C-alpha cells in the first residue's frame, strides 16, 4: 500500500513539473518579438503591395532577412509618405521601409542602420525631350516629385537659391507620375535613378533618364529614433545588413528587383 501511495505521489509530482514546464514554454513561445515597420507601400521596386495585400520588393526582402536573423516578426503599417516620419517620432512604428535616404539633415535627428542601397537623384523625361540636360534647364518647367521626400526638399532648396523658377508639383501617390511625363503634363519627374530605371523598363512608356550624372548622391538605410535603448539592437541590425552585403545576398536581391545594381557604394 505504501509503495502504491509513493508511486502515486511520484506520478503527481512528475505531472506537475511537466505541466509547469509546458506552461513556461508556451508563455515563452507566445512572447514573439515584433518589429513595427511603416511604409507608403507604393514605391516599387523597393516596396509595393500585391493583390492580396502582401508587401513585396527589395526593401521588403532585405528587412525580412534581417528580422528573421534577429528573431523578429514584422508588423507592417501603410500610410501616406508625408506622415511616415511623424509615426516614427510618435513611436507608432520602429523604422521605415521606403528607400529612405540617410541625408545629413536626417542623421542629425535619427540613427540609421548600415546602408543597404546606393544611388542618386535623376530626371525622368519624355524620350523626345532634348532640352533638359541639367537642373538649370528645369527653370520654367513643371517638375513632379514625391510629396515630402528628400528629393522634394532638394528641389525646394535649389529653387529658393536660384530664383524659384522651377514649377514644383508634389504628388502624394507617385504611381501615375511617369505617365504624366509621357503625356506631357509634366516636363520631368525627379526620382532615384534605380527607381527610374526599373519603372521605365517595367512600364514601357516613351521615357528616358536625362543623363548619366546624378543630381545628388545618397546612401539608403533604415532610420530609427535616436535612443540609447536602441543602440544594441541597431548594432545587431546593421551587422546583419553588412553580412548580406558581404555574402552577395543583397546583390542577388538587387538583380531580382532593380534594373541596375543598387549595392555598389559611391566612389
TrEMBL record:
Keywords: Signal. Its main location: other. InterPro entries: SBP_3_CS, Solute-binding_3/MltF_N. Coiled coil: none annotated. SUPFAM superfamilies: Periplasmic binding protein-like II. GO terms for cellular component: cell envelope. Residues 1-26 form the signal peptide. Belongs to the bacterial solute-binding protein 3 family. This is Transporter substrate-binding domain-containing protein. It comes from Candidatus Pristimantibacillus lignocellulolyticus.
